[in-house]
Amino acid sequence: MKRFIYMFILFVPALLMAQVHYAKLEPVETFQIKAAAAGQVLQAHDEMEGKTARNGVVVQIDDRVDRAQKRALETSLKVYKQTLDLTRRMRQNQESVYQRESDYYQRIKNLKTKSKTEKDRVFNSMIAAKNQLLTLDEKIATLTKQIADATYQVTMLEDRIEKKSVRVPGLYIYKVAVRRGDYVNPGSPLLTAMDLSAGRLVVYLDAQEVENLDRKTIYIDGEPTKLTFSKVIKVADEVHISAYRAEIVIPSPQRRFSSLLKVEVKEDAE
To answer: Could you write out the DSSP letters of every residue in 68-96?
Structure first.
């Protein structure tokens, strides 16, 4: 009996030992910046590699044609708006003409003192005024659509121009993938940038480790921490079969990125 108790005491610590995982400390986010539009590369500041970007342009794609199109569209937009304003004023005037012709026709249409020829003349004049109103309404509708289309095109060009000036303020420039004079198509890689404000560890936990994580402590290189899992995928990983991917975010990490860290998940003491 004593031998059994002794063997059980030796066996219990083995059951309580946490599994050891090793994970590489990576930046919390890595961004693959790709070209949104085609064009020739006018600037590519590869000297920024290994530095944190400010608000300056890192990669500039030729946007001269886009800017010229934008200026032309803005001129057209201005003319459209002026023409629309004039057309609306013309419509107001024509509305007065039509109303006068209509009122006059209503007064004489039943008068026996007016000839049929006179009544027909007034009626035709009233219809002509009404048709002129409809013509102006059609012109107003066309101008309204032209303004909407031109405004949309200007917005699209502004977006394209903005995306051709690649800025990544506050991010670490890992690699600039293009050089001055290169021609890029939509989707071509331009640069890789990273957020070094925090680090991320990815580990794969077994089913037992995933249970009751709120009552467990994360140890990094043997030291207890106050870190928690920022993400735990509840579906087993496709590659690490029967394991669940979990992520730990480390604010302002003191260790060097790409360092291999030992991660353990241990049950808190009662």
So the answer is: HHHHHHHHHHHHHHHHHHHHHHHHHHHHH
d(CA 251, CA 198) in angstroms, rounded, equals 4
Angle formed by the axes of helices 116-164 and 64-108, to 10°? 160
Residues 158 and 183 in one domain: no
* Residue 9: predicted pLDDT: 42
- CA 100 – CA 126 distance, rounded (Å): 8
- Residue 191, strand partner residues: 33, 176
Question: Within the chain, which residues score under 50 in pLDDT?
Answer: 1-16
Q: Which residues contact 220 (CB under 8 A, 6 or more apart)?
A: 227, 261, 262, 263
Residues 6+ away with beta carbon under 8 Å from 216: 209, 265, 266, 267, 268
- Chain-wide mean pLDDT for the chain? 90
Instruction: State whether the Cα torsion 43-46-47-52 is positive or negative.
Output: positive
Which residue is it, tokens 């420039």? 173
CA distance 268 to 161: 55
Domain boundary among 145, 165, 185: 165
Tell me the β-bridge partners of 248.
201, 229
State the burial class of residue 16 (Cβ atoms within 10 Å of its Cβ: 0-12, 13-18, 19+): exposed
Domain range holding 49?
A: 17-58+173-267
Q: Is the dihedral of CA 129, 130, 135, 140 positive or negative?
A: positive
